[in-house]
Amino acid sequence: MSRATSTATPGLSPQFCFNERLLRDFLRLSRSTIDDSINQNLNALFTPAREGFDPSSTSVRQTDSSQGSTIDSTACQGFKDNVLFPSWQTRSDVLNYCAAVATSPDPEDPDLILRQTESAKDRERVVDERLDPYSARFFPREARTESLANLVRNQRNVEDIIRARTWGLVTERCSDSLTSWEEALNSWRERKQR
């Protein structure tokens, strides 16, 4: 089992978070390396030849796909502890950091003066809705912190969905207990801190 390259936390800085394309690419690459290819990762843990080849196994057609596909519990635990949970933790760290950046004041916002100017012009505008009912429409520019907050919120929702799907496959193939992925991740965090 190889350690995933996406578990390395990128250099976290506000510039990293505000570069939404770079943030999305990091999350997408990390997810594709571990979660999107979870079946392949789990199949790599399965060692059907550990008992040796049984010639009688070819005389009967195997129709039960789940028969014999349970992965060794030590291999499963190693995969979860060394690959899956660190990847999830890294993505959580990045999203938490970027959420903190999104809620902090942004003195370097390049559009701040432009938004203030637009807001001042909007306050001075006289609108006669009888002549043009759509003239009252004004769509202020969104601050980059607001845009980042929306991106982080959406990516957290995506994480929840992907982790639930991944955890479902892991518990099915590893014959794990029926704990949720949140409980399993928190348990791993506690073991790691000791």
Automatic annotation (TrEMBL):
Residues 55-72 have a biased composition (Polar residues). GO terms for cellular component: mitochondrial intermembrane space. Transmembrane segments: none annotated. InterPro entries: MIX23, MIX23_fungal. Residues 49-72 are annotated as: Disordered. Coiled coil: none annotated. Belongs to the MIX23 family. This is Caffeine-induced death protein 2. It comes from Aspergillus coremiiformis.
